[in-house]
Design goal:
Bound molecules: iron/sulfur cluster
Strand order of the largest sheet: 11-12-10-9-8-7-6-3-13
Structural class: alpha/beta
Number of domains: 1
Oligomer: single chain
Amino acid sequence: MQQPVKIQDSNAVTKHPVHQWPPRALYIHIPFCTNKCFYCDFNSYVAAGQPIDAYLDALENEMKLTVKELPPTSIDTVFVGGGTPTVLTPPQMSRFLAAVRRYFPLADHVEFTMEANPGTTDMAKLQAMREGGVNRISFGAQSFDDGLLAGIGRIHAAQDVVQSIENAKAAGFTNLSIDLMFGLPNQTLQQLTDSVEKALQLDLPHYSLYSLKVEENTLFHRLYERGELPLPEEDVELAMYQHLMERLGEAGYRHYEISNFARSGCESRHNTTYWRNELTTGSGLVRTVTRKANAMSISKACSLISTWRSKLYRVWKRIRSAPRKRWKIS
Ligand code: SF4
């Protein structure tokens, strides 16, 4: 826990926390995916034909320069995102993770997360990840409905999620999370409810639940502009979010951040770094080095909060203006 700092002036009062320097959190970006999902505006490219080894060379060089410029003392959390880091082959994965360990001094208790897509993690790759120091995996499951998965351009089926989790557990990983999405085109509340139940059956310590946001420069945005994206009604989407909060709460998961639920003690420490606006260093195509980048995450979060607040407000107004039933007391 960081200590508050006293401002050195006549009005000395307790102000913002001191931000640790050098940063103790590290983000690394692997910008390749097997294909491009229809809603995705992340910095990612279809892997086929890309110079992945050259990218890893450049990444290693960048890590070297980063630590020269900004020597870290000890790194508490690492998050490898993308893209899909697990598109790397096992030899590429081993080489990449060895470079991370070579340049960054990882704390004994480091939380080392890698994002993964179901269907891209066979046992050989999981083994390479584990030997390379990864101790937490976040799988992009998104739904357990094969029709919806195909409709958003995912490459996997629901069974691949189950198999991937089994493989990860067999490889020795216990700190696992999956992402689910709601507000998808043609998604019903019942489909979401079914997916949540299947997700809970996996008995994981952490779940991330995101609402679809139609971003510019995506296939979904083009369809949306043409009026061809059948999104659920706003009230249905709100009911989905409420269901998620209630069901995850009932199942013993704490809603510790807008989109994240965890069993006690299993919250993502790296996520928490962003929420506290602490310093992060980074390498790769979307390198984040200062609090400015964290501030962007915070502003994104604030826009999410305000979206939900306005949605809640509109629903509240509708309820208020609905004709009321009069109770007759006899
Ligand atoms: S797997 Fe993730 S990063 Fe890759 S295209 Fe799909 S949503 Fe984007």
